[in-house]
Amino acid sequence: MKRTLNRTINIKDITPHNPNWEICAKVTNKSEPRIYVQNKETKKNFSINLMDESGQIKCTFFDKQFEQYYENIEIYKTYILSDCYVKKANTKFNNLEHPYELNASNKTNIIKCDDTATKTLKIDYNFIKIAEVLDKEENSIIDMIAIIKSMSEPHNLINQKTGKEYVKIDVELIDDSNQSIILHYWGNISANLEENTIVAFKRIRISEYEGIKRVNITNSTIIDSEINEEEKERLSKWIKDVEIVE
């Protein structure tokens, strides 16, 4: 498909009233496949979150589009996307701020393109310290920057209701508030997490079990290791000072 620049719009401008559009956006989140039986037929879907300089939007792929795109769409890569069905966002399954979401159709076109268009994307963070997380209410959505101190081996768990297998990893995070917290990680992008690296998390959820606070990846979480140098330098200096003291 040839790109038509006069059709390119920002994600924030997508509405059902403007059907003739395309966006150039980065995939910031890709769900695990969802496979279920409906009316004796096996159904499949997965979803991605797309981001440009104006915001984020969710796009879901069903059945034929699942088969066409699931293996081909890569997280953190940039794509030109057009001709999707625009619908009101289902806030039960979508906690992005955009009032609409997308469903891929037989007419949908997706082309992988040069990352140059999205390399300069700046994510707006409102970081809080781990010590502050401990005082926040359960289910609060927060942003955090921290050092990955350790990671557990992957655990394979079975959902008792659906029979679906999940992979869970526990990630211990530390920061310069001299506190640590466990991040429960579910999903398919754990390869982007490494011990002793500084990582920013956008939109993670606080949970609590037996009085202990933890944080969890959500379907709108962005994991970013390309954060600004000031933040990296601050935490790098702190961890070096801690190591010297110890």
UniProtKB/TrEMBL annotation:
Pfam families assigned: REPA_OB_2, tRNA_anti-codon
Record keywords, A-Z: DNA-binding, Metal-binding, Zinc, Zinc-finger
Gene Ontology molecular-function annotations: DNA binding; zinc ion binding
Sequence similarity: Belongs to the replication factor A protein 1 family.
Protein name, UniProt field: Replication protein A OB domain-containing protein
The Replication protein A OB domain, residue ranges: 130-223
OB domain mapped to chain residues: 22-105
